[in-house]
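User: Okay, second chain of the day. Same drill as before: sequence in, structure tokens out.
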Amino acid sequence: MNQQPRIDPEIKRQFKKIWLSLFIWVVWLNVNMVAGVVFDLGFFDDPHIPVWAHVLFFIWFLSSFLGMSWITYHIWGRTFPISFHTGHHLSNRHP
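Assistant: Same drill. Structure tokens below.
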């Protein structure tokens, strides 16, 4: 009688995807904030940092953003059970 309620496995999988996505994006954001703000690679106003270092940082930033987007897409895949393009609600409309 003293049984704990079980979580549905599908809900558990969705929560894992949420936490994994959130974790990797927060880590990505922190890495880029430290490199861009703390080490001044995101700003071109410091004469002690060569221009190539800024360019390399922005290439890293863009490529890692695209990589993180790709990873997030593959984490989620096609797991959304709702079809957003059914169009069935439009068939009953009259002009």
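The chain has a mean pLDDT of 85.

User: Thanks, on to the next one.
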